[in-house]
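Bug report

Summary: structure tokens for Sporulation integral membrane protein YlbJ differ between web form and batch submission.
Environment: batch mode, default settings.
Steps: 1) Submit the sequence below via batch. 2) Compare with the web form result.

Sequence submitted:
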Amino acid sequence: MSASIMAASLMAFPKESLEASIRGLTMWWDVVFPSLLPFFIVSEFLIGFGVVSFIGSLLEPLMRPLFRVPGVGGFVWAMGLASGYPAGAKLTARLRQENKLTAIEAERLVSFTNSSNPLFIFGAIAVGFFKNPALGILLAISHYLGNFCVGLLMRFHGRSKEKKITKQTANKHPLRTAFHLLHQERLKDGRPIGKILGDAVQSSVSTLLMIGGFIILFSVLNQLLSLLDITAFLSIFITVIFTFFQLPSELSLPFISGIFEITLGSQMSSQTTQATLFQQVVVTSFILAFSGFSVQAQVASILAETDIRFKPFFIARLFHGTFAAFFTVMLWETLYVNQQAKLDSHAIPVFLQTETYSSLNKGWELIVQYGSLFTLFMLMVYILLTGKKLLQKV
């Protein structure tokens, strides 16, 4: 039924659907692909060389007590934080397929390793939408603190179903053990460097093609929901909730849009003149943490290849949104109002100096400016590698 309605809507609004599709494709082509591909390739490369097992052995004493996941989760957490969603889901699924995680551990890990990357928060949201770099610190700290709290909360997930883990004795030579595991993993893999690199590029580009499809689909879906006034209808119910939290009803429409796609929702929230900056930032913080149905659909597609359930991830996103909005409210005075007063008095803290933002902003500008060329080049490499593999099979 829903597919029939969508098909009819596409025929009723062909121009608007095409524009939304191009907007989603442009976002994927210029930003998502070039910003995620290097991290995907590097992570695949490191897994093939056994570096993940090396890092996991060293981080076991930290990750196991805090989050009840193996030490390899530390690698996934770091890569997910640096590259953004859905890198955490892809790496978690890969480690689950290699039996480095149990299903319960994977469900815990994926719940707190998917987050927005710093370039997007500082470059696109703070500078691009709000034209206010100082908001980047507040949004980033609230976002990552919220994710940390989700990890602590999800450590209790599946505890009754999990077999009791026997307490391990302290390793007297952790570094020696880590190097031994790295050597064993490398021998077990056995692929030459060229083969590992080629497989990493193919696997990464294939995943990003799937991600691009979801971005375009949800860009069109979001536009159709708006044209059919479904977004406006849903915003009526959100208005009731916003009234309880003393948020203006004008933010309900950006909120609904952000529930489906974070970029559009964040942009609409920053442009809502009827709301104060504080209210805009709180709603945007929730949208960033919830990550939108577009990203969640990408994660669900990646997890479908394993026995990792999607439901715990979705529940974790609700908690993450709540935690992020809460921290934004609690840290507003300290990280924004007080710091703005210091900026006005020319007493600028080290972490708020212009140089702190310049590298992140320049990184974002470089991706936007040259991302399309990088995407085109890597797609050509992908086609050549795929063609070569097909010829070898003939």
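Above is the batch result. After comparison, the two runs are identical; trailing whitespace caused the diff. The mean pLDDT is 85. Residues 354-393 form the longest helix (40 residues).
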